[in-house]
């Protein structure tokens, strides 16, 4: 008889940035941001169980493009938590992906956040939210938000978070692109575009008060024209085909469209669920995306969904 050790499964959401204001490049290479995140109902499921060694296995959307070695953010999350807890790091980490890889939707960050929550539960660690957030921020700028979920204003590198009042459910269509974009390359392209136009050099990014008011009203018609992403020109420069995708989404009836984070996924805000399904069908037929998903937001952050 084989004995299977107990497992914990965590569901971790994708994110979209409804607003992404990027300040100048800092001496440490990062950029100060003012961003509004929303967690979406497109999830990776992360299952962990005790094992002799630390291994990561990935299946699902884009799994072939994920390195299952020490560079994997889930692997690094397990190592970081083991060091914090003074615990051996022997674990099997199984990741079932739905979030596009290198898609600008925090897929790697979701796997890291999911691993932190799952392993803390498996080992019954007494770790508070602040300590978990600090570990998360060391792993990547978006990881704390994936723990947090909902809708939030992010500052600093994006890791300093306060909740944003958001009424009702927003309906999104996500257009997945062929191939990914490297986040550092997109930020570097933005720096290059700005260096060529010093007169347009950025100041400190401002808080998007109009968008925050629109989110509180819950009216997607008010939110859509306020979607904004400083990284979008850089992402479009690196992947010009995305211009067609963005145009096709609004022509199909979306209220607004934007490149998600550093791209290349494009996110379209729709009036309601029926409209989102119709926009998704039209985009799928238009040949401007590798795949199309319908998702709602906001949803909760990474949370335990199963004990095996
Ligand atoms: O924090 P994370 O590892 O996800 O960031 C990946 C890369 O994205 C950084 O190395 C940096 O090039 C860029 N980045 C940035 N400013 C931020 C967040 C990320 O320049 N606030």
What this model shows, in words?
By secondary structure, the chain is an alpha+beta fold. The protein folds into two domains: 7-164, 2-Layer Sandwich (Ribosomal Protein S5, domain 2); 170-297, GHMP kinase, C-terminal domain (Alpha-Beta Plaits, 2-Layer Sandwich), CATH 3.30.70. The chain has ten helices and twelve strands. The protein has helices spanning 73-85, 107-122, 129-139, 143-148, 183-195, 209-217, 220-223, 232-238, 242-251, 273-286; strands spanning 7-25, 31-50, 54-60, 91-97, 151-155, 160-163, 170-176, 228-229, 256-259, 266-270, 291-297, 303-307. Strands 1, 2, 3, 4, 5, 6, 8 and 12 form an eight-stranded mixed sheet that branches. It has a four-stranded antiparallel sheet with strand order 9-10-7-11. Strand 9 and strand 10 form a beta hairpin. Helix 5 (183-195) crosses helix 8 (232-238). It is globular and about 55 Å long. The model has no long low-confidence stretch (mean pLDDT 96). Bound molecules: cytidine-5'-monophosphate (C5P).
